[in-house]
Specification:
By secondary structure, the chain is of the alpha/beta class. It folds into three domains: about 5-315 and about 390-445, ANL, N-terminal domain (Rossmann fold), CATH 3.40.50.12780; about 445-500, no CATH class; about 505-625, GMP Synthetase, Chain A, domain 3 (2-Layer Sandwich). Helix 10 (about 295-305) links the parallel strand 16 and strand 17. Bound molecules: 5'-O-[(S)-butoxy(hydroxy)phosphoryl]adenosine. 5'-O-[(S)-butoxy(hydroxy)phosphoryl]adenosine (WT7) binds near residues 396 and 398.
Length: about 625
């Protein structure tokens, strides 16, 4: 197996991966099922951007997630589903049952004409059929593109059109706490502008009145019950695309990061096993949504590749009350619990009795992901949830990295509040200064880059390799630039300090300032907008929008509502600005560039720290902005 078991093991593995990467990765890859093994473990580089892993190997990732376990773990629980409503009985699927469900789903897709290489969009709630659909695509070699169920019709349409999906799978609606979301209605609106979609497969989840479009829409249950549970896996090349997942950046529309089959598989499996260190009987729960990379790698692929039991939760942490997570932990005897700092902060702010009412005695390992965790939240998590008895793995990674890059290995490495700590073997972090020089030594800060490829890395931006190069490899040629700032302490531990680009991290969701600005600018009354992030107690960062209008709105409250509604309509509720300030001008340099540094300081409530404003075209706009700050 490929499990690191001790500190010594870790150090040895780190050296091995550095000095003899081909052997290191070949030894790990040996653990999987291949139709044909690789000719070369790795090839290519960051200059030509042609890196590949396990070249010419043949495999199917679902055989590794499912078929491979049938003999030894056929009757073991693979997937447990906890519904939104606590009174709904929990459902369980063994590896045998999950295998059947995935094969049936795959046959439905085939019946609908989906072929290897086709793109399938999944716009669903957190129901088991979402996970079946993800794996069904992989089973037949179709490329899945999951779109988070909180995105708007326009965002969904943009994503469908960008990669020209021909099938959309959705629910009639989804439950989220006390609310339900009209997924099919939103999908119908999106599809008015999506010519490539031939069919919509609709899984019924809620009781709702939806319209089924003749000739286009088909009910899941009509096909599923008839579908055969025999579906041989399509044999894929190691570098065949597995999925596309959209994420926001500093500029432009969200990018479709493309991950390929073998490298991603090895990375998801290896990182899951070594970071979480689950044992055969453990029950693992990651609270993310499958609409994000965390749900791809650590609800779906990572746990299943390791034969673990993974829990999918449909609801929200605060409904029916803010003790829901803790009640589920006790009820399902969760051993490994992986969530986001924003959830911890939100629950911390609720009645302590709710967490104290739970025993939480089955917990062994806690994890966090998505944003920097503050000291207070870390200690609350450690004391109230972990009872000072569970290692906390603070896992740093990104949609682009495919899986965890820097993290403590549970029970092996040191846990230091607010630190991701050490890189996994195979990961070479470098801190780089503004000029591009690598900063050596310890107790230093810089921009975080990764030197050299790792198997799980995204291979391109779908349909735009030039943009891939531009965004990640041009700032510091020859290195992958993460967009994060980072501190390395005197012992070589890494602490991620947050984005250094124009990306805001709101409740662990990545939001590009440009996207929010563009959305607000579509309002007729608006001339120009500048958006920045500011520290927010629960969300980590909040969104602050400075808006110039053609004429000052007579009712500011009404105007703010319009702005929020517009952002919700164009992007989705997650990108709604928290604060909106109408301004008469924006601080611009003589070349017309907005000085966001100034806007950030005002949003932060630190107008005393504006620094040099003399290079501004019109420094007087700053006084006006400071005077009317929200
Ligand atoms: C960005 C990536 C990784 C899956 C979820 C988010 C921030 C992520 C941490 C962490 C500090 C973190 C970074 C990164 N981030 N994990 N443990 N500590 N910051 O994936 O949407 O691609 O966002 O999230 O800023 O660049 P994503």
């Amino acid at each position: 197996m490929y499990r690191i078991k001790s500190k010594n093991d870790y150090e040895q593995s780190y050296t091995n991966a550095l000095e003899a990467p081909e052997k290191f990765w070949a030894d790990i890859a040996e653990n999987f099922h291949w139709h044909k093994k690789w000719d070369q473990v790795k090839s290519g580089n960051f200059t030509d951007l042609d890196f590949k892993w396990f070249t010419n190997a043949k495999l199917n990732i679902t055989e590794n997630c499912l078929d491979r376990h049938l003999e030894k773990r056929g009757d073991k629980r693979a997937l447990t589903f906890e519904a939104n409503d606590p009174n709904t009985p929990t459902t369980h699927y063994t590896y045998k049952e999950l295998h059947q469900a995935v094969c049936k789903t795959a046959n439905m897709l085939k019946d609908l004409g989906v072929k290897k290489g086709d793109r399938v969009c999944l716009y669903m709630g957190m129901v088991p059929e979402l996970l079946f659909s993800v794996l069904a695509c992989a089973r037949i070699g179709a490329i899945h593109s999951v779109v988070f169920g909180g995105f708007s019709a326009q965002s969904l349409a943009d994503r469908i059109n960008d990669c020209e999906c021909n099938l959309l799978i959705t629910n009639d609606g989804s439950y989220r706490g006390a609310k339900s979301i009209d997924l099919k209605g939103i999908a119908d609106e999106a599809l008015e502008t999506c010519p490539t979609i031939k069919n919509v497969l609709v899984h019924k989840r809620i009781e709702s009145n939806i319209t089924m479009k003749e000739g286009r829409d088909v009910w899941w249950h009509d096909l599923y019950d008839k579908a055969s549970s025999d579906c041989p896996a399509e044999v894929m090349d190691s570098e065949d695309p597995l999925f596309i997942l959209y994420t926001s950046g500093s500029t432009g529309k969200p990018k479709g990061l493309m991950h390929t089959t073998a490298g991603y598989m090895v990375w998801a499996a290896y990182t899951f096993q070594n970071v979480f260190q689950t044992d055969e009987q453990d029950i693992y729960w990651c609270t993310a949504d499958i609409g994000w990379i965390t749900g791809h790698s650590y609800i779906t692929y990572g746990p299943l590749l390791n034969g673990a039991t993974t829990l999918m939760f449909e609801g929200v942490p605060t409904w029916p009350d803010a003790g829901r997570f803790w009640q589920i932990v006790d009820k399902l005897k969760i051993t490994h619990f992986y969530t986001a700092p924003t959830a911890i902060r939100a629950l911390m702010a609720c009645d302590e009795k709710l967490v104290e009412a739970a025993s939480l005695s089955t917990l062994k390992v806690l994890g966090t992901v998505g944003e920097p965790i503050n000291e207070e939240a870390w200690h609350w998590y450690d004391q109230k949830v972990g009872k000072k008895n569970c290692p906390i793995v603070d896992t740093w990674w990104q949609t682009e990295t495919g899986g965890i890059m820097i993290s403590t290995l549970a029970g092996i490495g040191e846990c230091i509040p607010t630190y991701a700590t050490k890189p996994l073997p195979g990961v070479k972090p470098e801190l780089v200064d503004e000029k591009g020089s690598v900063i050596e030594g310890n107790d230093v800060s810089g921009n975080l880059c990764i030197a050299g490829s790792w198997p799980g890395q995204a291979r391109t931006v779908y349909g735009d390799h030039e943009r891939f190069k531009q965004v990640y490899f041009s700032t510091y040629p020859g290195k992958y630039f993460t967009g994060d700032g980072c501190y390395r302490d005197k012992n070589g531990n890494y602490r991620i300090t947050g984005r250094v680009d124009d990306v805001i991290n709101v409740s662990g969701h990545r939001i590009g300032t440009a996207e929010v600005e563009d959305a607000i600018d579509t309002l007729e009354s608006v001339v120009e907008t500048a958006v920045v992030g500011y520290p927010h107690d629960i969300k980590g960062q909040g969104i602050y929008a400075y808006v110039i209008c053609h004429s000052t709105p007579s009712n500011l409250e009404e105007f703010s509502k319009q702005v929020k509604d517009q952002v919700t309509k164009v992007i989705g509720p997650i990108a709604k600005p928290d604060k909106i300030q109408v301004v008469t001008g924006l601080p611009k340099t003589r070349s017309g560039k907005i000085m966001r540094r100034i806007l950030r300081k005002v949003a932060e409530g630190r107008p005393d720290q504006l620094g040099d404003t003399s290079t501004l075209l019109d420094p007087s706009v700053v006084d006006d902005i400071v005077k009317n700050a929200q």
